Amino acid sequence: MTRQFTVKVPGTSANIGPGFDVVGLSLSLHLTLTVTVPAASEQPYLAPVITYSGEGADEVPLDAYKNLTTRVALYVLRCNGIRFFPPGLKLHAHNEIPFGRGLGSSGAAVIAGVILGNELGQFNLTKERLLDFALMVERHPDNVTAALIGGFVGSYLRELDEADTEAASVPLSEVLPEYPPDAGEDWGLNPPPPPAGIGHYVRFGWSEPIKAIAIIPRFELSTAKAREVLPSMYTRKDLVFNLQRLAVLTTALAQNPPDPDLIYEAMKDRVHQPYRKTLIPGLPEVTSCITPTTHPGLLGICLSGAGPTILALATTNFEKIAEDARKIFRAQGIEVDWKVLTIAEGSQVNNS
Fold first, then answer.
1. Which sign, positive or negative, has the C-alpha torsion 143, 336, 321, 10?
2. Residues 6+ away with beta carbon under 8 Å from 63
3. pLDDT digit string (tens) for 188-224?
4. pLDDT class for 45, splitting at 50, 70, 90?
5. In this structure, are strands 49-54 and 90-95 parallel, antiparallel, or unpaired?
């Protein structure tokens, strides 16, 4: 019989100031897949049909062998002994997460693909195993872990033995090959499976009154470009600066009531934000001029992931904080949009 289900994956913000490549936060912007798997029949094989709405609808590939989410799903299927998508598969994606803005759009697409593959194959993989598959594609754990687990999450990559290190270091082109137009049914059939237990995580507490204001400039910034400006080495002083603040921040954001002075200082960073200011005009001014003193209700402010979105954590006064940030960006010739977001639960599957 025909089977229908939905997959709902939240967007995320990584780093939250000092937690570079370590912490992530799930946000109430979602990528939602509505999936229909027809009943088995004797009819000729029908390729998957993908439709797409929302953010990025005019640029997302609708070919299942080029779309990131379905390519990840096929990777999971093939690693578990299933060669093809089910015949006649129909998938509609509705996306609320802006592309290239530091809000975890690619991480959400990867997690959606991992869950899609698991559901299509009915493998009943654990969350830990789903994360292994995701980390073979998205090699940094902060966004994908937060998207899968939900809430405020810390994660790390386990030090692997030599064989597992080699397996986990396979080029992405082998994990998710680009399918040429003339690819036959055996093309890319045996992808490298992920080692077990690549990523580990813990979910921190979160104080319920805290909301996230996403101040979203109207330009894209690729993560690759934002990483290019980072140095290969840091001073001990700068690393200690970040470690001290991260140690405080992971507990401070769970306290009720939250302490603005503690959190504002704990969300400062010396590892990535100072180097990215050349890519995001207005960043230094926004993060220094909007404070708990000037804007009561503000707790802290930082770059969201690689940017260019600014993330302000606050309990009240959301519009004033966002509109004053808009003025600072406008003085640099940049227009922004903003949204007040809540902290979202992790990825969910609902069967119709």
1. negative
2. 50
3. 778 888 989 989 999 999 999 999 999 999 988 888 8
4. confident
5. parallel
The answer on 233 and 182 residing in a single domain is: no
Task: Please report the pLDDT score of residue 138 as a whole number.
Answer: 87
pLDDT higher than 80, residue 291? yes
Q: Can you tell me whether residue 319 is helix, strand or coil?
A: helix
The two structure tokens encoding residue 184:
């036959």
Indicate whether 348 belongs to any domain. no
Cα 53 to Cα 32, 71, 95, 218, 222: the distances in Å are 10, 19, 6, 19, 22
- What's the pTM? 0.93
How far apart are alpha carbons 160 and 288 in whole angstroms? 40
Q: Which of 161, 177, 200 is the last residue of a domain?
A: 200
Q: In the chain, which ranges are continuous DSSP H helix?
A: 68-79, 105-121, 127-137, 141-149, 162-168, 172-175, 223-228, 236-252, 260-266, 273-276, 283-289, 318-331
| Domains: count for the chain | 2
Q: What is the number of alpha carbons within 13 Å of residue 279 lying toward its C-beta?
A: 25
Cα 236–286–334 angle (5° rounding)? 120
Q: Which residues contact 203 (CB under 8 A, 6 or more apart)?
A: 149, 150, 151, 152, 153
Q: How far apart are CA 142 and CA 328, in angstroms?
A: 29
Q: Which domain holds residue 74?
A: 3-200
Taking each helix axis as running N to C, give the angle between helix 141-149 and helix 105-121, from 0 to 180 degrees, rounded to the nearest 10.
50
- The residue that leads in pLDDT, 68 or 185, is 68
pLDDT of residue 171: 65
CB proximity list for 30: less than 8 A, separation 6 or greater: 8, 9, 10, 11, 96, 97, 108, 344
Q: Do residue 280 and residue 147 come from a single domain? A: no
The closest alpha carbon to 256, from 185, 316, 206, belongs to 206
Cβ count within 10 A of residue 220: 13
Same domain, residue pair 143 and 17: yes
CATH value at residue 210? 3.30.70.890
Q: Between β-strands 152-157 and 298-303, what pairing exists: parallel, antiparallel or unpaired?
A: unpaired
Judge if 187 and 248 occupy the same domain.
Answer: no
